Amino acid sequence: MKRCAEPGRSFPLGAAVSPAGVNFSVFAKGATGVELLLFGEMEDPRPERVLTLTPHRHRTYHYWHVFVPGLKAGQLYGYRVAGPWAPERGARFDPEKVLLDPYGRAVAVPPGYRRDLAGRPGENTASAMKSVVADLSRYDWEGDEPLRRPFAQTIIYELHVGGFTRHPSSGVAPEKRGAFAGLMEKIPYLTDLGVTAVELLPVFQFDVQDAPPGLVNYWGYSPVSFFTPHQGYSSRPDDPLAVLDEFRDLVKALHRAGIEVILDVVFNHTAEGNHEGPTLCFRGLANEVYYLLETDRARYADYSGCGNTLNANQAVVRRLIVDSLRYWVQEMHVDGFRFDLASILSRDEQGRPLENPPVLWDIESEPILAGAKLIAEAWDAAGLYQVGSFVGDTWKEWNARFRDDIRAFLKGDPDTVVSLAHRLLASPDLYRHKEREVEQSINFVTCHDGFTLNDLVSYNHKHNEANGEDNRDGSDHNLSWNCGVEGPADDPEVEALRNRQVKNFLALTLLSFGTPMLLMGDEVRRTQQGNNNAYGQDNDLSWFDWTLLDRHADVHRFVKELIRLRLHFDKASLEQDLTLSQFLAQARYDWHGVRLHEPDWAPDSHSLAATAVSLTGTRVFHLLCNAYWEALSFELPPLPDNDGGGWRRLLDTALPSPEDICREDRAALVEGPTYLAQPRSVVLLFSPVPDRWNPD
User: Fold this and answer.
1) Distance, CA of 289 to CA of 108 (rounded, Å)
2) How many CB atoms lie within 10 A of CB 86?
3) How far apart are CA 240 and CA 256, in angstroms?
4) Contact by Cβ (8 Å): 306, 273
5) What percent of the chain has pLDDT over 90?
6) What's the burial of 550, exposed, middle or buried (CB within 10 Å: 0-12/13-18/19+)?
7) Which DSSP helix (H) or strand (E) runs through 494?
8) First CA to last CA across the chain, in angstroms?
9) pLDDT band at 569 (very low <50, low <70, confident <90, very high)
10) Which terminus of the chain has fewer CB atoms gathered within 10 Å of its CB, N or C?
11) What DSSP string describes 205-231?
């Protein structure tokens, strides 16, 4: 005989396991009644047990709670919540819908899940996602801790967990393809490449059906839970708790390989969409608390471009966000977070930008998050752009100006040389005033959203027909150049130029000061056939084709050597704890054009050279950037007498592999007072110096 349920406690939120049973607590402001549903199987048409919670016995403030003796980890559950259906007032209670627990630690997705039924009148019990009681206390971390690697020694690799191994060429067993376990098998590839951090596209449980007909939500920017690893990335989908261990096994294995784990987190909207969307969780618990609403309370403010916007600076939502981040650091050992459309987190309950957004300071001042990497995508879909002005003392920023300016320079656009100089020096025009680290700028030229690097040099225009929107979706501002032919080309000269441009982009990304980020597959010229918005393409278009490792072995080798060069060449100069202003004050560098000390800043200039001495004073570097369509002869600075014998070439993107990049001990001596930089090429020379040397 089952023991009777007890009133329970309001804290902790979610389902808390103890030897005696499970305490459930959920926030549901405005609710008049709550039912806790206990299921035997994920597709049961009705719950095995329904516990009716009453206000006088099971409610404290706006928290509804109950303790159920005898329950254990693995129990499937959900809520039904009664209250007013008054959209004009912002209330959207629907007692027929099964709701997820916002603090649930695992989610069971039935094979017959139906998003559409959650958006129609009527019950959806059999087809609804269910929360799962989880006990995380028994996992053996074997001494693992977040790595706390300094940003100065960080190379970020943005990847999609599913797409990294789903292609048959991955060599991963079928049951592990597209899973956390599959990614774990590819850790040797990542360590060989040299990256020090993986930035995983969203791994919180998301709704794969939140997409137009014929597509799926592949990227994962459609969360339904902020505490749950995505069940679709489990190699054991029949066991909804298995994904918890599988994700932690992955983190532990990456840490053992010296690789940090950064999660791309979506705290700006949810999968519940606009006023016509489904009721999955938050909408049915406290709609007017969780979401920003328009003056017409039946409508959602949409600063995310996805139909709704989380009310991030409301006290309950602030707590939810910080609790989620704390959980992923404490229980899952992740090293940091990249915040999607982070500028939304700076808006108040009327959508107005705040000077000091409470949630951002909550995140930054949370002791458990001290030392975690915090990276902001400092804009939103409604035009709020905060690159260079994002609030906080520790946040790093995706630098979209770096992306656009490097693209424009290498494309050959006019009036780009001044901007190039700023980007090479960690964007002092954007960040110097903040007295922040040299690494505040996250430097990238490609990411999941937009062209791949191969497509950036192969297409003048987007080709998104496969998305079913008549090529209207995706950005039209790509700053791309197809090198003379739209799409795949058989012309060897076109292909050679594209290969050179790919290496140019990689060189400037990894040689610039700041924190570099690479996109999955760019090191082997992965293509999406010109699709710059492949959010719904869970197929060959988006997956990593591992046969490209052989086809573009020269680019792969080039990236490996570039990363090694950045991380290990004069390592001490990267590790000095300097603000950008201090760095620029101490740095010894000089700008040049084709003539020494005569940089050409004119709008029609397409070249720039720079000489810089390492902060330790042991080496001097000379960088040549030629985006002109003809070869240019650059004068070289004279060197003091030393044992090095003169300038030596580390890198020249115009040369065939393996001459395009080499290590210090194999660098070829450059003869003569000039260097002929080929059309559209990047060159890096170096020389050891016996004493501190001023390039002037």
Assistant:
1) 26
2) 15
3) 26
4) yes
5) 92
6) exposed
7) helix 492-511
8) 88
9) low
10) N
11) -B-TT-S-TT----S---BS-SS-B-G
Q: Please state, in angstroms and rounded to a whole number, the distance separating the CA atoms of residues 376 and 264.
A: 10
Structure tokens at 204: 């919180």
Please state, in angstroms and rounded to a whole number, the distance separating the CA atoms of residues 259 and 255. 5
Non-local (6+) Cβ contacts of 442 within 8 A are: 156, 375, 396, 397, 398, 399, 514, 515, 517
pLDDT digits (tens, 9 = 90+) for 373-412: 999 999 999 999 999 999 999 999 999 999 999 999 999 9
**684 in Cβ contact with 626 (< 8 Å):** no
- The Cα 186–Cα 190 span in angstroms is 7
Confidence of residue 436 (pLDDT cuts 50, 70, 90): confident
- Give pTM, 2 decimals: 0.97
The pLDDT of residue 1 is: 41
| DSSP-assigned letters across all residues of 500-528 | HHHHHHHHHHHHSBSEEEEETTGGGT---
User: Region 21-29: what's the mean pLDDT?
Assistant: 98
Classify residue 205 as left (phi > 0), alpha (psi -120 to 50) or beta. beta
pLDDT reported for residue 377:
98
Mean pLDDT of the chain: 95
CA distances from 471 to 217, 415, 468, 527, 534 (A): 18, 30, 7, 18, 12
514 CA to centre of own chain = 17
587-688 CATH pick, 3.90.550.10, 3.20.20.120, 2.60.40.1180, 1.10.3730.10: 2.60.40.1180
Q: Is the peptide bond before 12 cis (omega within 30 degrees of 0)?
A: yes
Residue with tokens 């001290």: 370
The pLDDT confidence band at residue 621, using thresholds 50, 70 and 90, is: very high
State whether the Cα torsion 101-107-111-113 is positive or negative: positive
| Residue 421, φ and ψ in degrees, nearest 5 | -60, -45
CA-based R_g, the chain, Å: 27
Distance CA 158, CA 517 (A): 7
Hey, what amino acid is at 615?
Answer: L
**Whether 340 is catalytic:** yes
Q: Which member of 94, 207, 260, 340 is catalytic?
A: 340
Options 362, 377, 380, 397, the catalytic residue: 377
Q: Which residues contact 81 (CB under 8 A, 6 or more apart)?
A: 28, 31, 33, 34, 35, 93, 94, 95, 99, 284, 285
Give catalytic status of residue 439 as yes or no.
no
Residue 644, pLDDT score? 56
Burial class (CB in 10 A: 0-12, 13-18, 19+), 237: middle
Q: Are 462 and 533 in contact (CB under 8 A)?
A: yes
The DSSP call for residue 667 is: P
Mean pLDDT on 615-642: 90
Q: 3-state class of 660 per DSSP?
A: coil
